[in-house]
Recover the amino acids of this structure.
């Protein structure tokens, strides 16, 4: 993307007096950053506009006017936002050779002009949001960021940058973003919302920028051989890597014939499952793995230790360190819990909480002893921090779920300081509570029809638990049981709603089959008969509805259905020119039968009587009556011919295999313009009409389509089958955390598995 129109606004890079080679390299980095940020920020701003418009549609009156005013203001000012952000990036690179303590901050102008006051709540919220965003981004991209900090240190002719000062680093990007936001003039709610979009669309793809910057500098000869390669056991070097095997499997799937492609959408039921004990470790083993991680990271760079630097500030202290008492720590954690309940939208990370805890303990220290955390407790908090980092990758940071889990972080610190079995006990109350909160959020709060009442109930349960929590796991067990009862009641309601939807679909199918049979019967009776247009239209429509309703009530083999067919034959006979006509007695009886039958499908008595006369008593001299347009019986259920879908061989194979798909399979649908797919469950499928029904978690219908249409959507990538994973978010996070820690051992995880 051409960003020339928005680059070099201030000209700071070319006026910084940098050496020619350093200037050329910084200019190349700025080009990479401009392309990346302009593209991702455009996406974020477009989504923000959509959110503002949708919000305006859901309110009325003065609030709607305010929303539309914000939308107009955004459209007017958004063109200034990206140039200001890119100008701030240019200033970062321009100051690359300035001393770290004098490097200009992107938000300096904001601080100078700020009004003096004790505390601004909104600013405090943004500080917390920025700190959490930068911390998550750093922990997720620590090694690539470490390489970039080393290479930029070469350009600066000094040591490697710290993560907080590295140009293009998460901390300074957040500062630049905050500075550029001033031109948009957003209210506090809008500011928080766009921060979450910035994290999703910019920091969420930050790894791409880091890889591009490192590749560019390495290609230009800046530490080209700098890399990080974990030590591997020489005996295992020739074993096939799991990643390579997975890539080969994907490549093999791409060459499969069309008839086999659908199987790549399903979980592999034949794959061996890991036992629960395979990924569990005792706390002492986790401590050993964590110590190995500390050792290796500290060898790489003292700044690369994100979670494990809590005691760094006290390394040179002259006074001896003493582990704080339970009462001293408990008092501080009590205050943290009160803050979490009173400010649920401000979720501090575990890293931030640990640093605050250590700082409070230092404030309580005396000249002869410095209060600190017990090493075991410190390690336990570090492990929880790694766990939460991994789990939060699967949770939208601005969602209600993220707020609820953030409130649980201080009680979680209390739990692991008291009970180290948290790390090895899969049914520990704290783990159960985390899993059920994540499940409730993913299934019930993140859907399009989120229930504010449910969110309030969950917030009440979590709030009361956090407010009164003293470290006793029984309190968490009680909260888990209360939350589980709440979700079970929702599940029962959803199952009842789903059954109603299935019953409706089955009834529609029966009506469709009955109507198709009736229409074919009428077509067969009139195939070779020369009858008036009016009579033919009434038999094809009104009388077909009569026969369809009769079949639904009594069946297609019943005497009533045959009687209705006989009446149709008599009507045809009465309208056939070659026929001598019917007897007067039969005509009167036939008119009465027609009138009674038509009343069953919604015709009024007078209207039915008039139709009966028009059908039986033909008057050659009178003009032919015009059939009245009337809604058909079950008009919305009319069958759609599958012939309208021109399917290729792959799509036809998909249709055949979708016929055998298990009921209850979850699909993901990517709607046009949507940023994330929606989930829906296949709850009913008809092999006769090829109709399929999808419902959401609450049992409400979300889609109804033909198998042919579903096959087209799957083949074109707009629908796919959701891979089943019975593990909860936090159980997967435990597995990922332990696997990651094992990889720091010589020989990696394989050594532990032998």
């Amino acid at each position: 993307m051409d960003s020339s129109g928005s680059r070099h606004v201030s000209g700071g890079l070319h006026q910084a007096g940098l050496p020619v080679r350093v200037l050329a390299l910084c200019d190349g980095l700025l080009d990479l950053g401009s392309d990346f940020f302009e593209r991702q920020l455009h996406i974020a701003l477009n989504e923000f506009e959509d959110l503002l418009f949708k919000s305006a549609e859901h309110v009325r009156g003065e609030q709607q006017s305010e929303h539309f005013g914000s939308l107009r203001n955004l459209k007017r000012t958004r063109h200034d936002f990206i140039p200001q952000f890119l100008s701030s990036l240019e200033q970062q690179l321009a100051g690359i050779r300035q001393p770290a303590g004098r490097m200009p901050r992107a938000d300096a102008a904001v601080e100078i002009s700020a009004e003096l006051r004790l505390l601004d709540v909104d600013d405090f919220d943004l500080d917390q949001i920025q700190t959490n965003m930068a911390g998550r981004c750093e922990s997720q991209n620590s090694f690539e960021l470490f390489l970039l900090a080393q290479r930029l240190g070469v350009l600066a002719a000094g040591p490697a940058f710290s993560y907080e000062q590295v140009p293009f680093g998460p901390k300074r990007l957040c500062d630049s973003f905050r500075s550029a936001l001033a031109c948009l003039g957003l209210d506090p709610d809008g500011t928080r919302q766009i921060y979450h979009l910035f994290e999703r669309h910019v920091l969420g793809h930050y790894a791409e920028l880091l890889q591009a910057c490192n590749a560019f500098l390495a290609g230009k000869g800046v530490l080209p051989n700098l890399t990080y390669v974990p030590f591997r056991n020489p005996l295992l070097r020739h074993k096939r890597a799991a990643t390579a095997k997975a890539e080969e499997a994907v490549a093999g799937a791409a060459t499969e014939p069309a008839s086999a492609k659908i199987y790549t959408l399903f979980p592999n039921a034949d794959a061996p499952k890991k036992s629960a004990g395979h990924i569990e470790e005792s706390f002492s083993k986790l401590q050993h793995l964590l110590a190995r991680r500390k050792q290796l990271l500290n060898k790489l760079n003292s700044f690369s230790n994100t979670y494990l630097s809590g005691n760094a500030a006290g390394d040179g202290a002259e006074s001896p360190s003493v582990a704080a008492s339970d009462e001293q720590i408990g008092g501080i954690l009590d205050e943290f819990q009160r803050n979490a309940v009173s400010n649920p939208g401000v979720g501090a990370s575990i890293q931030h909480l640990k640093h605050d805890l250590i700082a409070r303990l230092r404030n309580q220290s005396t000249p002869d002893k410095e209060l600190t955390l017990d090493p075991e407790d410190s390690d336990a908090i570090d492990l929880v921090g790694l766990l939460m980092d991994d789990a939060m990758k699967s949770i939208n940071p601005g969602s209600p779920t993220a707020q609820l889990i953030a409130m649980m972080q201080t009680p979680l610190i209390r739990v692991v300081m008291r009970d180290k079995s948290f790390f090895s006990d899969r049914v520990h109350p704290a783990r159960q509570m985390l899993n059920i909160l994540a499940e409730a959020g993913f299934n019930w709060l993140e859907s399009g029809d989120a229930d504010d009442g449910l969110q309030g109930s969950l917030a009440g349960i979590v709030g009361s638990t956090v407010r009164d929590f003293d470290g006793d796991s029984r309190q968490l067990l009680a909260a888990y049981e209360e939350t589980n009862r709440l979700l079970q009641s929702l599940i029962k309601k959803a199952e009842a709603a789903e059954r109603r939807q299935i019953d409706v679909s089955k009834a529609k199918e029966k009506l469709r089959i009955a109507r198709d049979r009736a229409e074919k019967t009428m077509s067969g009776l009139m195939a070779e008969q020369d009858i008036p247009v009016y009579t033919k239209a009434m038999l094809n429509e009104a009388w077909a509805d009569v026969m369809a309703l009769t079949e639904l009530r009594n069946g297609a083999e019943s005497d009533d259905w045959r009687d209705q067919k006989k009446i149709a034959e008599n009507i045809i006979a009465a309208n056939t020119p070659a026929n001598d006509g019917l007897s007067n007695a039969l005509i009167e009886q036939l008119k009465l039968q027609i009138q009674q039958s038509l009343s069953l499908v919604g015709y009024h008595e007078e209207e039915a009587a008039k139709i009966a006369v028009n059908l039986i008593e033909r008057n050659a001299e009178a003009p032919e009556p015009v059939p009245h347009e009337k809604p058909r019986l079950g008009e919305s259920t009319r069958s759609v011919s599958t012939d309208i879908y021109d399917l290729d061989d792959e799509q036809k194979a998909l249709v055949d295999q979708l016929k055998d798909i298990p009921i209850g399979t979850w699909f993901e649908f990517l709607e046009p313009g949507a940023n994330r797919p929606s989930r829906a469950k296949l709850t009913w499928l008809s092999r006769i009409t090829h109709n399929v029904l999808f419902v959401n978690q609450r049992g409400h219908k979300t889609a109804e389509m033909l198998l042919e249409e579903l096959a087209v959507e799957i083949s074109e990538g707009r629908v796919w089958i959701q891979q089943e994973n019975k593990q909860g978010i936090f159980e997967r996070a435990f597995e990922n955390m332990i696997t990651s820690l094992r990889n720091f051992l010589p020989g990696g995880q394989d050594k532990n598995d032998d």
Notes: Strands lie at 321-323, 370-372, 666-669, 678-685, 691-695, 701-706, 719-721. The chain has a mean pLDDT of 78. The chain is about 60% helix and 5% strand. Residues 20-219 form one domain.
